[in-house]
Design a protein that fits this description.
16 strands, eight-stranded mixed beta sheet, alpha/beta, Glucose Oxidase, domain 1, 39% helix
Length: 597
């Protein structure tokens, strides 16, 4: 049954995408025929090669050996991207051994939501994805490359790189990850300290010490947020070497995997990414997201990525796939484990095997390894300096973290789409206790996260309520994540109050134990129902039945006018430079892209 349901969902996506997909493949085919390095003028090529060492110039000017672009999000401020520093040199070195070449074609920006949370810079975060896509296109626009390596890890970086790569769909692509930092302070302890700080029970210095024990070295954060969901997703789409996502930085195996990626590109160049990424690869990514309890951000990003390949998916596809996909992993915030513990329990090799055996992945899709996902049931090891693959775990090493499809944590992926007069919203229920899946309470309208925090500090929120934060969507202010609310809402829930959140903003992969209807669409600034909610309205948030409804008469609701948008200062932290993007942003449900619907 699940296999038949998955096939039906995929057929629906293929049919819905037929015209746009055919148009995309036609553009890709034309680019492949049109752009050849030997057709460029000599002056153009001289500029391309001017900065190369003389011994490489002598070889590359014959134009009969492949030249590959390297596009990197390296910077040494962000722990996840710092390990990428040496990757370009390693890749070039290996390519040369196979009579191929590599050039560092361009860098893309990489900002950290963890740093900008709660501040004005967070309003640039979502749009940084599209800036990264455009930066990728600029790097590839010289049209002198036969393929590309993409080096990036975190929240908006990988989706941006993917969108940019798909705009050059005639080029083969390999994504090369950096891996997670070693485990630090347990995520549950970190969250507890945050809640205690919100209650005034620990000092700022104690909070800082706790956070620095959690985020302490090179690599991605170890909770299962958008960054690590990215890595899972790219693997299930077949763009990584198998099970390379969660190998630690600065280890011999990690370095060897970078060299192996370069060898693969030079000796067994994969299919062009535009041909390789089909509806089946996109569906596999959604299945992986549901099976592992991944980030809700991908209900935005995957839609935008698919659109870049001419594929049309929507929230109903996510909901349908969630219903048939068992939850196999409990990783924070859906559980207590971090990604290192998940990897030790069997990791993605185990997940892929279980999903394949259950008929819940399209095994016949193309990957950089060729056809089929079977290689992704294997794990890499070092044999001397050589990477070898061995079959991954056939049974979980820790069933508190990872389980098989026959005995999952939940029979579904824990993602619900709520509908009603407020609009449509995403709710991640896998981390929320079942007793909190339904809540009926009065609405309280807040202008901002800070407004919420101030009212909590004034002891005004010790009661049952549903917090409404409108005008937090892409058009309004760039759709920031609202994590500053999480510790406070968690504290109130622990005190016995019935609380929930409804917003057209984001909460992302760190969505926690409090019921939250997020990404409400249409957003308030586009006339969405969330803008009509008034203080004191009784709201029903019912994840079991998929309802998000203000309990007023239909006629009264129809006659209500939206509230006046909250006045905000559009300057500071570069926000004025993004005014045009806010005006162009599409709806959340169609990927919030600025490139047109």
């Amino acid at each position: 049954m699940p296999k038949k349901a998955l096939e039906d969902i995929t057929k629906g996506i293929i049919e819905r995408s037929r015209e746009t997909r055919e148009a995309y493949l036609e553009r890709t085919s034309k680019a492949q025929r049109k752009i050849q390095r030997e057709d460029l003028g000599c002056a153009n090529l001289a500029h391309t090669y001017a900065g190369l060492p003389e011994h490489i110039k002598a070889k590359i000017k014959t134009n009969d050996k492949p030249n590959f672009a390297i596009i990197s999000a390296y910077n040494d401020m962000l722990s996840a991207h710092k390990p990428l520093k040496d990757y370009p040199d390693w890749i070039k070195e290996t390519l040369l051994q196979h009579e191929a070449f590599g050039q560092m074609a361009g860098g893309v920006p990489a900002m950290c939501d963890g740093i900008t949370q709660g501040y004005s810079g967070m309003e640039l975060s979502l749009f940084s994805r599209d800036v990264i896509a455009m930066s990728t296109a600029i790097a590839l626009s010289h049209n002198v490359f036969d393929g590309a390596f993409y080096l990036g890890v975190c929240d908006k970086i990988v989706p941006g790189l993917l969108i940019g790569a798909l705009s050059f769909g005639h080029l083969p692509a390999i994504f090369v990850p950096a891996g997670p930092m070693a485990s630090g302070l347990a995520n549950a302890q970190k969250s507890k300290v945050r809640e205690l700080f919100a209650q005034g029970k620990v000092s700022r210095q104690e909070l800082l010490e706790s956070e620095m024990k959690s985020y302490h070295s090179d690599g991605t954060c170890t909770f299962y947020g958008t960054a690590n969901s990215n890595q899972m997703m790219v693997e299930l789409m077949g763009l990584h070497l198998p099970n390379s996502a969660f190998i630690h930085p600065h280890t011999p195996l990690r370095k060897a995997l970078v060299h192996k990626a370069a060898t693969l590109m030079a000796t067994q160049t994969p299919k062009p990414i535009g041909e390789m990424i089909t509806e089946k690869n996109i569906v596999n990514a959604i299945v992986g997201l549901m099976a592992t309890g991944g980030s809700t951000n991908h209900t935005i990003h995957l839609i935008a990525i698919a659109k870049a390949a001419g594929i049309v998916i929507n929230w109903d596809d996510f909901a349908a796939i969630s219903k048939i996909t068992p939850l196999l992993a409990k990783i924070y915030p859906n559980g207590q484990a971090d990604v290192n513990q998940f990897e030790a329990a069997g990791g993605l090799a185990f997940v892929v095997r279980e999903l394949l055996n259950a008929g819940l992945l399209h095994e016949d899709c193309h990957t950089i390894m060729g056809q089929g996902l079977k290689p992704y049931t294997q794990n890499p090891y070092l044999d001397g300096e050589k990477v070898v693959y061995k079959e991954g775990a056939k049974a979980s090493h820790n069933t508190d973290i990872l389980r098989g499809a026959a005995e999952p944590f939940l029979p579904n992926g824990g993602l619900e789409i709520l509908k009603g007069n407020v609009g449509r919203a995403v709710m991640k229920v896998s981390a929320v206790d079942a007793k909190h899946h339904t809540i009926k309470a009065p609405a309280l309208i807040f202008e901002s996260q800070q407004d919420f925090i101030d009212r909590f500090n004034r002891q005004e929120l010790q009661k049952d309520f549903i917090a409404i934060l409108p005008y937090q969507g892409p058009r309004a202010n760039g759709m920031p994540e609202l994590h500053k609310l999480t510790p406070i809402l968690g504290t109130l829930q622990d005190q016995g109050f019935k609380v929930a959140l409804v917003t057209d903003g984001r909460m992302s992969g760190a969505s926690g134990k409090v019921p939250a209807a997020i990404q409400v669409s249409p957003e308030a600034l586009l006339g969405g129902g969330i803008a009509k909610i008034q203080d004191g309205d009784i709201l029903l948030l019912d994840a079991k039945e998929g309802i998000l409804q203000v309990l007023v008469e239909d006629q009264e609701w129809k006659e209500r006018l939206p509230s006046v948008p909250f006045l905000r200062d559009p300057f500071g932290s570069g926000r004025e430079l993004f005014a045009g993007m806010r005006l162009l942003a599409g709806s959340t449900e169609t990927g919030a892209v600025i490139f047109g619907e």
